[in-house]
Design a protein that fits this description.
Helix content is about 10%, strand content about 45%. It has helices spanning about 1-30, 400, 420-425, 425-435; strands at about 35-45, 50-55, 60-70, 75-80, 80-85, 90-95, 105-115, 135-145, 145-150, 160-165, 170-180, 190-195, 200-205, 215-220, 225-230, 245-250, 250-255, 265-270, 275-280, 290-295, 300-305, 315-320, 325-330, 335-340, 345, 360-365, 370-380, 385-390, 415. The strands form seven sheets. Strands 22, 23, 24, 25 and 29 form a five-stranded antiparallel β-sheet that branches. A four-stranded antiparallel β-sheet has the order 1-28-27-26, with no helix packed on it. The protein has a four-stranded antiparallel β-sheet with strand order 2-3-4-5. The longest helix is centred in the first third of the chain and has 30 residues, at about 1-30. It is globular, with a radius of gyration of 20 Å.
């Protein structure tokens, strides 16, 4: 394992060195307000089934989830020189479902243990696996080849979503309170937590008053945490996300909404304190998911990122230090990845250079070099695979000239068949299963 780890780090360091000119050119590109063109690489289906790349850090480490052959079980996957299975906590499933950015070699996510939940709770993890299967689910932190289980607040289940470069992990965990605002199979109350920097250190973050429940979804290097609070509900969005929150020094601030009373969910925050995510634009806390992407700044509050032309919904998933945002724009039957830069959303497929057989359906992670990862459909095989998109510039490093390079016309929508939809992992399946009209 040690030799494998050193090999991976050497490969990553070499890749980072080779791409540093692209980082400088990408900075120039933003100053010129020109979205770059991209080379797109197929990361394949390393575990045999549909695959989703979720996050990418500045070392080039890519994390996500890969279905095993048959598309009924998913494991967390790390691409670091080559892809490998991170394993589970003893149960059948694990996943990385939120963008990871830490450059310390730490990956966080969720994994099932070998124990069954005596309360029969479906818990938050079920939406990122293949539905409830009865196993207890916990957050994990993976480092140096070891997956460590994170403690809860006394209850059975937990969830790890994000980690910063200080080794602090955020997520949510059950306590022992039987919460009367829970519904469905959910029984126990859950609260936003910060683990670390040591894994056995745990701090609870308060919900926004008078909400009883909360969850943390991302943390930046300044220790600012974003997440949600609301009712216990079913522990998967909805009424649990009545309020989108920013915690600073443990104090929650309501970020507002786009007109809806549910699904108000921050997904990522950069070190400038700019936040992106999704929210309903109408309806009360019982409204079904019909998301609109948003970007929040202290100066302007929450502003909607509108879907691409003819689409009904969108989700903003990640933001880098230069303010580039990636996400997904979709209808109930189609989806496409987008890049949002300087107030303009662009279909990422329209920026691909010739030679790729991939149609990019979901962009979920972006690093500070502007490299993007997500999920794509291989138009030759109809397989769902992970992708890496690398910005490219002309030989002189001129981003404006590079932006005029001719690509294929891939701006059409990618139609999702019912068979392909059932194979999609994580957020892809969750969003598209509930997509509605705005």
């Amino acid at each position: 394992m040690q030799f494998r780890r050193l090999t991976c780090i050497t490969a990553i360091s070499l890749f980072a060195g080779l791409t540093s000119p692209l980082w400088l050119a990408a900075q120039a590109s933003q100053k010129n307000h020109q979205p770059p063109k991209y080379y797109v690489f197929n990361l394949g289906d390393p575990l045999g089934g549909a695959t989703e790349a979720v996050g990418i850090n500045d070392l080039g480490w890519i994390s996500g989830g890969g279905n095993l052959t048959g598309n009924t079980t998913v494991h967390a996957v790390l691409w670091a020189g080559s892809p490998f299975d991170l394993g589970t906590l003893g149960g059948p499933n694990s996943n990385v479902s939120w963008p990871n950015h830490s450059n310390r070699g730490e990956i966080v996510g969720i994994g099932e243990t070998s124990d069954m939940n005596p309360l029969g709770e479906a818990w938050s993890c079920s939406a990122f696996f293949f539905g409830p299967d009865g196993y207890i689910c916990r957050g994990f932190a993976w480092q140096d080849g070891v997956m460590s289980e994170l403690p809860t607040l006394g209850g059975y289940d937990g969830y790890a979503a994000g980690v910063n470069n200080e080794g602090k992990v955020v997520g949510w965990a059950e306590n022992t309170v039987h919460d009367p605002t829970c519904s469905g199979s959910q029984v126990l109350q859950f609260e936003a937590v910060v683990w670390g920097p040591k894994l056995n250190q745990m701090t609870q973050l308060p919900p926004f008053p008078p909400d009883p429940d909360s969850a943390a979804t991302a943390i930046n290097d300044k220790g600012q945490v974003v997440g949600i609070s609301g009712l216990c509900s079913v522990a998967v969005g909805g009424a649990s996300a009545e309020h989108a929150l920013l915690w600073e020094n443990g104090v929650p601030t309501n970020l507002g909404n786009l007109g809806g009373g549910a699904w108000n969910t921050p997904v990522a925050i950069n070190n400038q304190g700019v936040i992106v995510g999704f929210a309903n634009t109408s309806g009360d806390e019982n409204a079904p998911l019909s998301p609109a992407g948003f970007i929040w700044t202290k100066e302007n509050g929450m502003q909607e990122i509108f879907p691409l032309a003819d689409d009904t919904n969108d989700i903003a998933f990640d933001i880098n230090e230069r303010g580039q945002v990636v996400g997904q724009s979709f209808t109930s039957s189609s989806a496409r990845a987008f890049l949002y830069q300087d107030g303009v959303a662009t279909d990422l497929n329209s920026l691909i250079l010739p030679g790729s057989s991939l149609y990019l359906t979901l962009a979920q992670g972006i690093n500070d070099r502007g490299e993007i990862v997500g999920t794509a459909t291989d138009i030759n095989t109809q397989a769902s695979v992970a992708f890496l998109a690398v910005p490219v510039f002309d030989g002189s490093g001129n981003p404006e000239a590079a932006s005029k390079m001719t690509g294929e016309d891939n701006s059409r929508k990618g139609i999702l068949t019912e068979g392909l939809r059932k194979q999609l992992p994580g957020f892809s399946r969750l969003a598209l299963a509930s997509a509605g009209s705005k």
